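Q: Can I see a sequence and its folded structure?
A: Here is a first one.
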Amino acid sequence: MTGITRRTRNLGDLQREIDRLFGRFSPSRDQDGDRSSRQSVWAPRMDLLETEGAYRIRLDVPGMSKDDLTINYQDNELTVSGERTNDRPGDDAEFVRVERPFGHFHRAFTLPQTVDAAGIEATYENGVLTISVPKTEDVKPRQIEIQ
């Protein structure tokens, strides 16, 4: 009888593999807009919400200050990048296990042309970066009065 070994992969492994694969075909841009060979080590979890008047992006970046983060908008692409450093233990300690990601990250979001780029705002509170991207008046739903 032949033994079959089954390798299980979790969703995080699959997402990283897909990100790595697509990263080969469309390298990310760094903050000055040039193509960058610098690879992201991790990607913060995020939520994308849509309301009647805006899109809201929330990224989990605990352990970072707002000075560690960079947000850029160019050609309908919103990019968020930053770097979380690894806290070194003292001389009398060493890591036994490390599960918190650290290093450079880069997330890019292609936005519709119907956003108000001048109105984009960002806030940072309790480890969550929230970016509000307002829609232009042209795309907001409106009720038409029947004459």
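Q: Show me another, different protein.
A: A second, unrelated one:
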Amino acid sequence: MIDQFVGFCLRHRLSVIVVTLLLVGFGVYAWETLSVEAYPELGDVSAQVTTQMPGLAAEEV
């Protein structure tokens, strides 16, 4: 199996080189367009809850 693969690659050198260059080019393109946030947004997690309780102050609710 490996012998057949190596033989194919040696017989079709130009095709193997072209495919390799296309894959490398696609990899470089993907690397350049990859959006990576270097500093993620770190913030306190908070939730706002609205309630109504007749006769109680905000601190008591």
